[in-house]
Amino acid sequence: MMSMKRPAFVPDDFTLMLVSTVVLATLLPAQGGEARFFDGFTTFAIGLLFFLHGAKLSRDAIRAGITHWRLHLLVFGCTFALFPLLGLALKPLLLPLVTPELYTGVLFLCVLPATVQSAIAFTSIARGNVPAAVCSASASTLLGVFVTPVLVGLAVLPHSAASTNAFDAIGRILMQLMLPFLAGHLLRPWISGWIERRRQVLGLVDRGSILLVVYTAFSAAVIEGLWKQVPLQALAGLLVACAVILACTLFLTGWFARRLGFDKADEITIVFCGSKKSLASGIPMAKVLFPAQSVGAIVLPLMLFHQMQLMVCAVLAARYARRVDDVPASEPARVAG
Predict the structure, then answer these.
(1) Kind and range of the H or E run holding 30
(2) Distance between CA 328 and CA 325 in Å, rounded?
(3) Helix or strand holding residue 23 (H, E)
(4) Which terminus of the chain has a smaller tally of CB atoms within 10 A, N or C?
């Protein structure tokens, strides 16, 4: 029997699970002892998640990345400088559209590292420089463990109503996320084969830990009255805010790549690695950095931006691929450096 093809307008399975988790937390929020249990279990799951991220990062990828330093420098500049500057510069436009808490979430989104899997996948579909994408995306995850907490202290917490001490927040994220990450990376020579053989099981850890954080975060936020504080008008404004930031970064990454003389394959890599933000890193980091009652509103912009970037980049990757197919045989594309 032939399986029915999923309609184009239906989100992927993980997005549906995220939405279902938010609905569950809204209807049945964890409270009291149950909330404390979920909080402890979630902390363990986050440590395990970053341990596995560290174990999956190849040292060969780090070494290979050095050889194409101009591309990587531009990607990191877009990820950790262009995004935060856009978030701050667009404040007069964005703040009237959303609540102050949601704007803090937008700023938090802007300081996160890039995605790994989807950035590489879209680069491959678009016929870009895949080895460079692997290096840039992996290195972005590694840098994000160090750079994101610093940027949160400098750019996000000053705009937050939370009374979290910046240095205390940075110390917590380095202890809870960086140490497991480094431990996994140091143990890579002994456990990488075991991890490769169990990719599907580890994928469940990846997704399961994110769903746990979403459930605990939204449970605490719902109890504090999240949906009374976030009107429909603010949610609509948040969609506009995410669309504006994504459009600006997609345009600027491509423009910078062309102005600096990168070839088409490298331009594709820069666009897809420099314009994306990681849900897998962002949600665990938010739980560590912000008070429990604030996390729901903080991660809402990231969840919307994540789905939006997947949908837009899928269309963009297909367009890039068609342009490569249309290059005449007499005018071959240059090989990426």
Answers:
(1) none
(2) 8
(3) helix 13-27
(4) N
- Measured between alpha carbons, how far is 8 from 318 in angstroms, rounded to an integer? 14
Predicted TM-score (pTM) of the model is 0.76
Count of Cβ atoms closer than 10 Å to residue 194 Cβ: 10
Residue with tokens 């194409």: 68
* Sequential DSSP letters for 271-310: HHHHS---HHHHHHHHHHHS-HHHHHHHHHHHHHHHHHHH
Confidence (pLDDT) at 195:
78
Query: How many whole angstroms separate alpha carbon 335 and alpha carbon 266?
Result: 9
Residue with tokens 């174990």: 55
Which two tokens mark 140?
Answer: 């972005």
Q: Report the SS3 class of residue 115.
A: coil
239 vs 166: CA distance, rounded Å? 28
159 residue type, one letter? H
H-helix or E-strand containing 233? helix 232-259
pLDDT over 90 percentage in the chain = 21
Tell me which DSSP letter residue 12 carries: P
Q: Which of 85, 131, 106 is nearest to 249 (CA)?
A: 85
Q: Are 292 and 232 in contact (CB under 8 A)?
A: no
Domain boundaries, the chain: 35-323
Whether the CB-CB separation of 212 and 38 falls below 8 Å is answered with yes
Place of tokens 């000053």: 158
**139 close to 53: Cβ distance less than 8 angstroms:** no
The alpha carbon of residue 93 and the mean position of all alpha carbons in its chain are separated, in whole angstroms, by 23
pLDDT tens column, 115-162: 877 788 888 888 888 888 878 887 887 788 788 888 887 777 665 544
The structure tokens listed for 118 are 């989807």
What is d(CA 324, CA 80) in angstroms, rounded to the nearest whole number? 30
Contact 255, 10 (CB under 8 A): no
Read off the DSSP letter of residue 153: I
- Cα-atom radius of gyration of the chain, to the nearest Å? 20
Which CATH architecture does the domain made up of 35-323 adopt? Up-down Bundle (1.20)
